[in-house]
Fold:
Amino acid sequence: MPKLTPGDLERIRETMARTMSLRDGDARAKITVHMGTCGIAAGARKIMSAFLGLVEARQLKDIILTTSGCAGLCAHEPMATIELKGEAPVKYIDLTEEKANRIFEEHVLGGQIVTEYALAIGSERVS
Structure:
């Protein structure tokens, strides 16, 4: 496993600061790429890289990009969940880099759900 560099540590620090922004109300969106073993095997790293490239290319500071483990739907990996401030989360499945680009443009930036790639809208939490 490669060693962490000072640049890696700075990226981690910035990511954590953005995570706090969502809780404090400063971030407008959160993108979670599901990177359990099944997700990684299905190509989640490419999806994460695609989203990261889109955020960095536009130098967006109000978009949180994070990872999670398996979402329990291995047959539909790679997957990502998009959460816009004040709206229910949307889980996208069977992603490709092209689909990630479209989801970023239309949903993350434009606020319009890309229904043909969405599996579900809303939280899995039971109250």
User: Anything to note?
Assistant: Strands lie at 29-34, 63-68, 80-84, 90-92, 118-121. DSSP finds four helices and five strands in the chain. The two ends are 40 Å apart (CA to CA). The mean pLDDT is 86.
